[in-house]
Amino acid sequence: MLYLIGLGLFDEKDISLKGLEVLKKSDKIYAEFYTNPSHASLKNLESLAGKKIKVLTRKDIEEHPEENVLKDAKEKTISLLVSGDPMVATTHIDLVLRARKKGIEVKIIHSSSVYSAVAETGLQIYKFGRTTSLVYPEKNYFPESPYDAIAENKKAGLHTLCLLDVKAVEQKYMTVNEAISLLLQIESKRKQKVFTEETFCIGVARLGEDSVIKAGKAKSLLKIAFGKPPQILVIPGKMHYMEEEALKTFSD
Question: Tens digits of per-residue pLDDT, 212-222?
Fold first, then answer.
């Protein structure tokens, strides 16, 4: 049996009672933190589970799962801890499919996720359009798809949730400020007025614990220090008056 267990939004205290029960009966426990930064303490998790936990890299899971999480899952109880919800943001559907092809039973234990917690901003969940991800530019690689997603959502009057790049191995996590700067760089090239210094947006950090939510023009948010990860950027579409009222509480 393979269990994918959500760790929730912030730290080890967000794991569900069901998830904790499974950990205690697991023969082996693995964890991954590359899809989303977590403030969970490995030491505390091991204390709760009563056994050691091996942290895996993206390469371990995406390229060689047969050497770790899938290796003994047909005969033993194996658990994989995932920050947030196991099937949200970066999904693990490939891992699930590989397991099923090998005749391994898979169970998902869901947990809190940014996809629901973003409602803490006051924006209504059902009014969000396509989610996009902003990544750090590299040599000959500067994707502009987030700009297009924002444009499409705006045209439909929908809000845009921008997930920010995570480079766990390098301990590098994109900030709201960096995300805004990247979008402004794309704007300077595309010149379609999709995201300018005057664009109203929302910077969010560490939902689920010491949350920081700031709403205002892009040029104003650039001056704010949002602190530790994880962080996200939200660009509202057409807002209901209740959404506007809620965002006033996060405006300077």
Answer: 999 999 999 99
